Amino acid sequence: MRNLFYFFGQLLCIPHVLLFLFSEEKEVITKDLYARKNFNASKWHQVWDLSKELWLNRYFRTLFYHRTQGLFSKILRIFYPKASTFIIDVNTKIGGGLQLAHPYATILNAEKIGEKVYVNHLVTVGEKNGKRPIIEDGVELHANCIVIGGITIGKNAKIGAGAVVTKDVPENAIAVGNPAKIILK
């Protein structure tokens, strides 16, 4: 019964699949789709997984709409809404493989977010005085952390839960606390 539900739900996502197939961002969307697992799927398996994810996961759908901006994408948003509690600024450049761990009440407003970045819930990445952060590849942003201003979070850095980051964080570092302090370099 459950598989039948998924199947009919996925049929409703056919317009999204068409948007994906004609998108210039196919490779990046595929990286997002398989961000949590290493998987080289056939083209049809990718379509199946994509339609299932779009049907069941509003957060992924929000990211998908960010990747496929355009008139057709905006029309689809009317019938298949994105998550109202997950906001991505239209000017934020995001690399492939963004891992979304239930990003409830999350705002991503950065200059750039690198590849394979992990984002948890209640995360705020935002501007201060017109300057936005740069988040490098492999960064982990844990629950309720805040990253603001014209700062850079280095590759593979980890921002701990509840941290408030207003200064640069070097590569491979761990930043925790309010205000954030580097505890490991």
UniProtKB/TrEMBL annotation:
<keyword id="KW-0012">Acyltransferase</keyword>
<dbReference type="InterPro" id="IPR045304">
    <property type="entry name" value="LbH_SAT"/>
</dbReference>
<keyword id="KW-0808">Transferase</keyword>
<comment type="similarity">
    <text>Belongs to the transferase hexapeptide repeat family.</text>
</comment>
<protein>
    <submittedName>
        <fullName>Bacterial transferase hexapeptide family protein</fullName>
    </submittedName>
</protein>
<dbReference type="InterPro" id="IPR001451">
    <property type="entry name" value="Hexapep"/>
</dbReference>
<dbReference type="InterPro" id="IPR011004">
    <property type="entry name" value="Trimer_LpxA-like_sf"/>
</dbReference>
<dbReference type="Pfam" id="PF00132">
    <property type="entry name" value="Hexapep"/>
</dbReference>
<dbReference type="GO" id="GO:0016746">
    <property type="term" value="F:acyltransferase activity"/>
</dbReference>
